[in-house]
Design goal:
The chain has 268 residues and is mainly α. It is built from eight helices and five strands. It starts with a helix and ends in a 9-residue tail after the last helix. Keywords: Hydrolase, Metal-binding, Metalloprotease, Protease, Signal, Zinc.
């Protein structure tokens, strides 16, 4: 009976999710929340960030970021060509993010590693790549599915062997899922966002080779980092090698974009 209940729970979980294909052709499981819900979550998180963090009032910085964002988002499929809202945060950490609902945040610290418009475009296009690849939806779906299955497993073990065994199973299972299931998926998403972002930047007329220089700057500015298998980001040197190899194949796209009049002049 317990095995039958477990099977039914897993079956219902699978039915609740949808199978789709990412921009790179990878199979994804999504659908835990609707796109409207994702957009609402993105808008809420963005509003909270703007209320909590100090915003840059530097008109040049804001115009610079806006220019790069506009050039990139014009290359998005029709369904994603909304008016993306941009915020520049007065924060020294070199970071940026994009959220469902067309929200982009950039820390002023990014300018210390993104030395020109092409490098800034590599950062922003990568973050937009996460959104258009539905990575937020995918992560929520997988996290909800993992939590549900762990809860079922703990309940079954608890009823068979006592609450202590059930609690221990939940804790150990959670750690294992985080290390061997959720984190590797995040690395897959990071690599996919690199692919999608580098393509977007090239289509917008930004030099795809500058993504390599950006990551060289990031390595130079960074300190120690966890081992690759425990990180949510690919190994930096491996990432640079992949970006460099991909840049060569994207040069015709970049040159065609320039020939077609996509010549962004955003400054820096």
């Amino acid at each position: 009976m317990k095995r039958a209940l477990l099977g039914l729970a897993i079956a219902s979980l699978v039915v609740a999710c949808a199978t789709t294909t990412s921009p790179t052709g990878r199979t994804q499981y999504v659908g835990a929340v609707s796109q409207d819900q994702l957009n609402q979550l993105g808008a809420q998180a963005f509003a909270e960030a703007k209320a909590k963090e100090k915003l840059s009032t530097d008109a040049r910085q804001n115009g610079y970021v806006r220019c790069v964002v506009d050039a990139i988002t014009r290359q998005l499929p029709a369904g994603w060509q909304t008016q993306w809202e941009v915020a520049v945060f007065q924060d020294d950490s070199p970071n940026a993010f994009a959220l469902p609902g067309g929200k982009i945040g950039v820390n002023t610290g990014i300018f210390t590693v993104a030395k020109n418009q092409d490098q800034l475009a590599a950062v922003i296009a990568h973050e937009i790549g996460h959104v258009v690849s539905r990575h937020h939806d995918e992560r929520i779906t997988k996290q909800q599915g993992t939590s549900t299955l762990l809860g079922i497993g703990s309940a079954i073990l608890g009823s068979a062997y006592g609450s202590t065994a059930g609690n221990a199973a939940g804790q150990i299972g959670g750690a294992a899922a985080q290390t061997f299931y959720l984190l590797p998926n995040s690395r897959t998403q990071e690599t996919e966002a690199d692919v999608v972002g580098q393509q977007l930047a090239a289509k917008a007329g930004f030099d795809p080779r500058q993504a390599v220089n950006l990551w060289q700057n990031m390595i130079a500015a960074g300190g120690s980092r966890p081992p690759q298998w425990l990180s949510t980001h690919p190994d930096p040197q491996s990432r640079i090698n992949e970006l460099g190899a991909r840049a060569g194949s994207l040069m015709p796209t970049f040159e065609q974009a320039r020939a077609s009049g996509h010549t962004p002049k955003c400054g820096a």
